[in-house]
Amino acid sequence: MKSYDVVIIGGGPAGLAAAISSKKNGIDSILILERDKELGGILNQCIHNGFGLHTFKEELTGPEYAARFIEQVKELNIEYELNTMVMDISPDKVVTAMNRTEGLFEIKAKAIVLAMGCRERSRGALNIPGYRPAGIFSAGTAQRLVNIEGYMPGREVVILGSGDIGLIMARRMTFEGAKVKVVAELMPYSGGLKRNIVQCLDDYGIPLKLSHTVLDIKGKKRLEGITLAEVDSKGKPIPGTEEYYSCDTLLLSVGLVPENEISRGMGVEMNPITSGPNVNESLETSIEGVFACGNVLHVHDLVDFVSEEATTAGKNAAIYVKNGKERKSEGHEIMLNPIDGVRYTVPKNINVQRMDDSITVRFRVGGVYKNCYVSAYFDDERVIRRKRPVVAPGEMEEIKLTKEQLLKYPDLKTITVKIEEA
Ligand SMILES: Cc1cc2nc3c(=O)[nH]c(=O)nc-3n(C[C@H](O)[C@H](O)[C@H](O)COP(=O)(O)OP(=O)(O)OC[C@H]3O[C@@H](n4cnc5c(N)ncnc54)[C@H](O)[C@@H]3O)c2cc1C
C-alpha cells in the first residue's frame, strides 16, 4: 500500500489551497485525489467574472482563479491523480479509491484534508407534482452544458430558487439568446449575493418573485409550462394567486448539499445545520488528523474565503504530521454558541493554546435583519458589537478573535454569537 503524509480528497479551490499550504509548511509527501478529468472543481464551469476580489484584488473568471492555484501546485511538484474517485476512508486513515488504470486501490495517510465540495439539491427533494418531462435541470447542470459541453438547454426559461447559481444562470441564458421569464423564490428574501441580484437580474429586466413557488408542471415529453403561486408565511400556496408561464426549461437552484457521504462513513461528527463536519480552530474534525475546508465544511458565498480557510486546514495538517499528538496540548477550550438569528459557527470550538494569533469565525444568519448588531458575548460580557446595515442568509458573516484577547479571559467557557436589534 502506498503511503503519503497528507492526502487531500478533491482538487477544487479548497483542495488546491490546502495542498499548497501543506507544502509551504514543510510537507513534501502530498497527494491530491480528484474524480474529475481536471483540477479546479466547480470553478471550471464558472466562466463569469467576480472571483478573487479579496485574494488577488482583481476580478477573475473561475478558470482564471483556479489556474493561479493549479500553476502553484505544478511548480511545487505536488502529486495529483485525476479521474480518481475516493470511495471510502477508514477511521485510521486508509483511503480506498478507484480509477481506470489502477482499479481499486488503497493509500495510507498520516493526515487527511476533506475538500469534496458540494452538490445541488435535485427535483426529487422538492415535491413538485406533475410528470417528469425533459427540460428540467439543476442550474449547475445547465451551467456545465452551456459553458463546457456547448449545448443550449432551452429557449424559454423559468428559474426556481434565487441562490447564486440561479442568478448567474439567468444572465448566462439571456446572453445565449434565451428568454428568462421569471426567477421565483420560496423565501421572502433571495438566497444569493446582493451584487448578483443587481448584475444578473436587475440589469437585464428579469423579474424576481419572492415568496413564490412552482405549483404544477405541464408537459409529458418536454416541459410546456409551469404554474407559479404565491406562498404564505408557512410556505403554503395561496389559492387564487396562480399564474401560468409557458416555458420549455425549468432551472432549479434550490440549495447546495455538502458532499459528506465519505466523512459520515468514516465516523466524523456532523453538524446538522451546515451538513458539514464539526471542526475546531484548526479546522480539524472529531477524528484527529482529519481536516475539512471549503464547501464540504459549509457552503461559502465567495471562493476567496474557501482559499483562506483551506490554507489554514493545509497548514494544520502539516503541523499534525510534524508534531502529532504533542500538538494536542491540554489547553483552554472555548465553545461557540450561535443563537438569536445566527444559525451556526465555523469553528465550533477554539483551543486558545493551539490557535493562531487570530481566528475568523464564519457564520450565516437565518433571516434578513436591518440596522442590527452582530454581537459576541464572552460568557456574560458583551465584548464585540458591530453595527450592520443589513445581514441576510445569502451572505456569510464573520467575527475576528485574537489570541491576545482570549488569553485575557482564562476562565472563559462560551462565546455566544448573536444578532441584536439596534
Ligand atoms: C454557479 C456558481 C457560481 C459561483 N460564483 C461565484 C462568484 O462569482 N464568486 C465567488 O467568489 N465564488 C463563486 N462561487 C463559489 C465557488 O465556486 C465555490 O465556493 C468553490 O468552488 C468551492 O470550492 P471547493 O473546493 O470547496 O469545492 P468544488 O469547487 O466543488 O471542488 C470539490 C472537488 O472535489 C471533487 N470530489 C468530490 N468528491 C470526490 C471524491 N469522492 N473523490 C475525488 N474527488 C472528489 C470534485 O470533483 C471537485 O473537483 C460560485 C459557485 C457556483 C457553483
Kindly describe this structure.
The chain has 422 residues and is of the alpha/beta class. The protein contains eight helices and 26 strands. The strands form seven sheets. Strands 1, 2, 5, 6, 7, 8 and 19 form a seven-stranded mixed β-sheet that branches. Helix 1 runs parallel beside helix 7 and helix 4 packs parallel to helix 5. The N and C termini lie far apart (60 Å). The mean pLDDT is 95. Residues 9-15, 33-36, 41-43, 46, 50-51, 85-86, 115-117, 140, 143, 164-165, 168, 259, 262, 294-296, 300, 302-304, 306 line the site of flavin-adenine dinucleotide. Residues 9-15, 33-36, 41-43, 46, 50-51, 85-86, 115-117, 140, 143, 164-165, 168, 259, 262, 294-296, 300, 302-304, 306 line the site of flavin-adenine dinucleotide (FAD).
Bound molecules: flavin-adenine dinucleotide
Structural class: alpha/beta
Stretches where pLDDT falls below 50 for ≥5 residues? none
Tally of DSSP β-strands: 26
Could you estimate the helical fraction of the residues in percent? Answer: 10-25%
- The overall pLDDT average reads 95
The largest sheet is: 7 strands, mixed
Percent in strands: 25-35%
Number of helices: 8
Overall geometry: globular
Terminus-to-terminus distance? 60 Å
User: What value does the Rg take, in angstroms?
Assistant: 22 Å
